[in-house]
Amino acid sequence: xxxxxxxxxxxxxxxxxxxxxxxxxxxxxxxxxxxxxxxxxxxxxxxxxxxxxxxxxxxxxxxxxxxxxxxxxxxxxxxxxxxxxxxxxxxxxxxxxxxxxxxxxxxxxxxxxxxxxxxxxxxxxxxxxxxxxxxxxxxxxxxxxxxxxxxxxxxxxxxxxxxxxxxxxxxxxxxxxxxxxxxxxxxxxxxxxxxxxxxxxxxxxxxxxxxxxxxxxxxxxxxxxxxxxxxxxxxxxxxxxxxxxxxxxxxxxxxxxxxxxxxxxxxxxxxxxxxxxxxxxxxxxxxxxxxxxxxxxxxxxxxxxxxxxxxxxxxxxxxxxxxxxxxxxxxxxxxxxxxxxxxxxxxxxxxxxxxxxxxxxxxxxxxxxxxxxxxxxxxxxxxxxx
Length: 386
What we know:
Layout: H1 5-22, H2 25-31, H3 36-45, H4 63-76, H5 78-87, H6 90-94, H7 99-105, E1 113-126, E2 129-139, E3 147-156, E4 159-160, E5 170-175, E6 181-183, E7 197-207, E8 211-212, H8 236-251, E9 257-258, E10 263-264, H9 269-302, H10 308-336, H11 348-358, H12 366-378
Parallel strand pairs: 1-3
Antiparallel strand pairs: 1-2, 2-7, 3-4, 3-5, 5-8, 6-7, 9-10
Helix pairs in contact: 1-3, 1-4, 4-5, 4-8, 5-8, 8-9, 8-10, 9-10, 10-11, 10-12
Protein name: Acyl-CoA dehydrogenase
Keywords: Oxidoreductase
Pfam families: Acyl-CoA_dh_2, Acyl-CoA_dh_N
């Protein structure tokens, strides 16, 4: 597959700014959000344009290129990568809106969108749109966002509306950040720097044209022809954390001493085995992610239909990447031993907290395996993360 020149340009720009951002990861964690200047620096690289079409001036990167960018950023800081992963969904959302409306809302291809798209809110139908009320969590990057999404079930005359199959109708509302009440409830163990604040609304009017359903794309093509488009680059976060942890362990090999076996780390069979096992686990997880993404992308380029096998493969590869990450970081944390708990000596405490936190996302829950099994055996699943 031909490499997109826009990908190379963005990757180069990211590599240029990552060293200065790496020096500020403690600041990011302390603030519990990205500083405004770092968010702007990331904007300047063009990374938030990766899901916008070339016809808009966007980068229009494929799933594999996007994941590699997120993976590289996560090697430096998981919260930073998480904010980029969420914020760059703007281009995907724009494809579910009528184009003239989308261009008014998404004023340029570097727009950052935050928000929780799954239906935690209530949208009552009124003339011209909806009155939206509710409270949403996990507004990652909301402090630096240009737009905020909010998933809602649709109501009419106080009754929840259902589709022909009896399922509740779910739409995503788009509004300005200042139209919501933002509350700081983000006091967590991991991903502290993601600024994933709570936000709420009470009878907020959203015009009909500023809402969308993932089942009704306006723009055709691989970025929009499957409803799980926003999930495709997520695996970059656990893959990047895993790579950082293994590289850290390897960097200690020349310095540390294995007191158990009374040999330097570099000569210790115990250390050699654990590092090799972690590398093998990451190799397998990473291979599954990129292989399934490439097969899916190729299928979407030739047809808008995805087979059961491809839907299954991307979902379980993503699930496995998250679980593998936590396992790798835990193994290395234990290998390094007492040094792991000192913040000034090791980043492993932060990586372990981040790994545990990302594994609480819906894509890393056992319900994904249940839904994947349902998909394989019955040919369908209503789980939105499959």
